[in-house]
């Protein structure tokens, strides 16, 4: 009996260390994709048998509005993380994962092992928090409803799960119900290069310009390369600028390209490559658009 108690204490110590390392590194228990979404309507509830290490044999219940509930789905739709910050100071994390390479969908997932160490053949499950976690676990979960938006956005989730720590019989059983607003539109960018530009006789720089378009307000970085060949000499220069874009009103951009060598840009034709880059704040992903155009430079004295 004493030996079993020591083993349990050791397992819990190792578990606590592993949990602390996971939280310190910030990567093991979170989905890759959209940033965490606050849940506007939903509940998380669970209870454990006597002897369940995570729950301590108690029951817990949390509701959006009173408590903070967040959900985070992976862009590949294979993983959902749910986190709870209770008004009473409790904190919990739940991960439900399909076997690697598969998408989470309605159905029952048997033979789950601890996420993120479940591998390619088994689904992943992990419920921990309040300083307690399983070192190893077995379990299963059933998803009765899941509705995905772009970039891992979770519109709805109804799931039930059962978890056993360290191969023991005591179980933790829980349910999660989430209903969020419809997913925001993804950011759409467009960039164009005007077919005329200027070559300065004063400093040798080329001035190019164009327009960017967007479907929601965003700050856009425009960068690119100007290339010209004159008398078998290759002339190149890069440029960059930043503009604010709002829907329905193309934003004009203009930038100077400084030649990298000693030969200045000259009147004549050049190739202009442009790339527009912006962050979609709804999904925390970077969106790009590009264009290539033949541009005629006119010589100016300034």
Describe the structure.
This protein has one helix spanning 2-25, and strands at 37-38, 41-48, 59-63, 68-73, 79-85, 91-97, 107-114, 124-129, 137-148, 154-165, 172-179, 189-193, 196-200, 206-214, 218-230, 233-245, 251-259, 268-280, 285-300. The longest helix has 24 residues, at 2-25. It folds into 2 domains: 2-179, no CATH class; 189-300, Immunoglobulin-like (Sandwich), CATH 2.60.40. Helix content is 8%, strand content 54%. The chain has an 11-stranded mixed sheet with strand order 1-4-5-6-8-7-9-10-11-2-3, with no helix packed on it. It has a 7-stranded mixed beta barrel with strand order 13-14-17-16-15-18-19. The chain is elongated, with a radius of gyration of 28 Å. The protein is built from 1 helix and 19 strands. With 302 residues, the protein is mainly beta. Residues 1-33 have low confidence and may be disordered.
How would you summarize this macromolecular structure in one to three sentences?
The chain is mainly beta and 302 residues long.
The secondary structure category is mainly beta
Largest β-sheet summary: 11 strands, mixed
Strand order of the largest sheet: 1-4-5-6-8-7-9-10-11-2-3
What does the radius of gyration come to?
28 Å
How much of the polypeptide forms β-strand, as a percent range? over 45%
- From the N-terminal CA to the C-terminal CA, the straight-line distance is 90 Å
Count, helices: 1
Mean pLDDT score? 90
Oligomerization status of the protein chains: single chain
Order of secondary-structure elements: HEEEEEEEEEEEEEEEEEEE
Number of domains: 2
Tell me roughly what share of residues is in helical segments: under 10%
Low-confidence stretches: 1-33
């Amino acid at each position: 009996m004493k030996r079993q108690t020591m083993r349990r204490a050791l397992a819990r110590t190792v578990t606590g260390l592993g949990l602390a390392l996971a939280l310190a590194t910030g990567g093991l228990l979170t989905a890759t994709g959209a940033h965490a979404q606050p849940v506007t309507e939903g509940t998380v509830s669970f209870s454990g048998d006597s002897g369940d290490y995570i729950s301590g044999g108690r029951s817990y219940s949390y509701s959006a509005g009173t408590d903070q509930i967040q959900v985070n789905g992976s862009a590949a739709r294979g993983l959902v993380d749910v986190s709870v910050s209770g008004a009473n100071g409790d904190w919990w994390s739940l991960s439900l994962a399909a076997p690697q390479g598969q998408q989470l969908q309605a159905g029952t997932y048997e033979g789950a092992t601890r996420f993120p160490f479940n591998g390619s053949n088994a689904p992943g499950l992990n419920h921990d928090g309040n300083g307690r976690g399983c070192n190893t676990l077995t379990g299963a979960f059933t998803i009765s409803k899941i509705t995905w938006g772009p970039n891992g956005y979770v519109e709805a989730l109804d799931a039930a799960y059962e978890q056993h720590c360290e191969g023991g019989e005591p179980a933790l059983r829980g349910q999660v119900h989430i209903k969020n607003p419809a997913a925001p539109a993804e950011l759409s960018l467009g960039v164009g290069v005007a077919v005329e530009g200027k070559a300065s006789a004063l400093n040798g720089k080329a001035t190019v310009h164009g327009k960017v378009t967007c479907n929601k307000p965003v700050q856009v970085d425009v960068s690119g390369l100007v290339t010209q060949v004159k008398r078998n000499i290759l002339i190149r220069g890069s440029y960059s600028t930043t503009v604010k874009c709002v829907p329905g009103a193309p934003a004009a951009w203009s930038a100077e390209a400084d030649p990298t060598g000693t030969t200045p840009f000259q009147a004549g034709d050049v190739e202009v490559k442009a790339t527009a880059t912006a962050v979609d704040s709804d999904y925390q992903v970077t969106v790009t658009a590009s264009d290539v155009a033949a541009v005629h430079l006119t010589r100016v004295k300034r």
